[in-house]
Amino acid sequence: MIKTIFFDFDGVLTTDKSGSYTTCKYIQGFIKYLSFEDILESYRKHHFDLLLGYVNHTDIWTDFCKSLGKSIPFDVLTNAFKNPPKNKKILELCNLLKKKFKLGVITDNSSDRFNVVKKEMNLCDIFVYYIVSGDIGSRKDNEINFKKALEMSNTKPNDRIFIDNNRVNLVVPNKLGFNTIYHDHEKNNINILINKLNKYGVSVR
Fold first, then answer.
1. Measured torsion, CA atoms of residues 69, 74, 75, 76, in degrees rounded to the nearest 10
2. Direct distance between the N- and C-terminal alpha carbons of the chain, in angstroms, rounded to an integer
């Protein structure tokens, strides 16, 4: 019987496919003469270290700006963190699900970014558990993240569901016995997601 449902953040609770996409798209609004691809390339030089918590955005900001050839106020980045494109359909679904199930987030995210979005989106009103790669130094391609989820929620693997917009991220939890659901962020079809949840005995209402 399902007791806990875990959601990925970017691409599930937001409508953009990734956090780096959201961040760089916002930054481009302030330096429109640079292509999104150039901004993303400069940002992703630090992506690995950010997601594993080796550095935070304050540490890399000077080098990032130097790479772009443009001094950008750090407030621009903070505002990018504060304005993720919320997936209102799924957040509404989560508000219904929390009445019957404990909900959590498993995400590959830097600690500083996720702390901001967690506060701005009032995620604590909905979610009980948080497994953030930047906090534990491990990403979703590692069993550590999902074993941490098992430890936190104190239930059996087949009592949980994990939802992600990247099929690759479902491989490890599947091996551990999690029920998994792929959510296509481009279609963002809430009825398909509800039908998939129903197959696991999860009644939305």
1. 30
2. 17
Judged by DSSP in three states, 131 sits in strand
Cβ distance 109 to 116 under 8 Å?
no
d(CA 9, CA 77): 18
Helix axes 88-97 and 190-199, enclosed angle (nearest 10): 30
Q: What is the pLDDT of residue 51?
A: 98
Question: Would you call 24 helix, strand, or coil by DSSP?
Answer: helix
| Cα separation values, 147 from 152, 164, 179, 195, Å | 9, 17, 14, 27
Rounded-to-integer distance, Cα 195 and Cα 127, Å: 22
Closest CA to 49 of 122, 156, 134, 149: 134
Nearest to 109 by CA among 83, 78, 135: 135
The label of the residue with tokens 């961040």 reads 23
Tokens of 61: 């900001």
pTM for the complete prediction? 0.95
Rounded average pLDDT per 10-residue block, the chain, 205 residues: 96 96 94 92 96 98 95 95 96 96 98 97 97 97 95 87 97 96 96 96 84
Dihedral sign, CA of 199, 177, 153, 10? negative
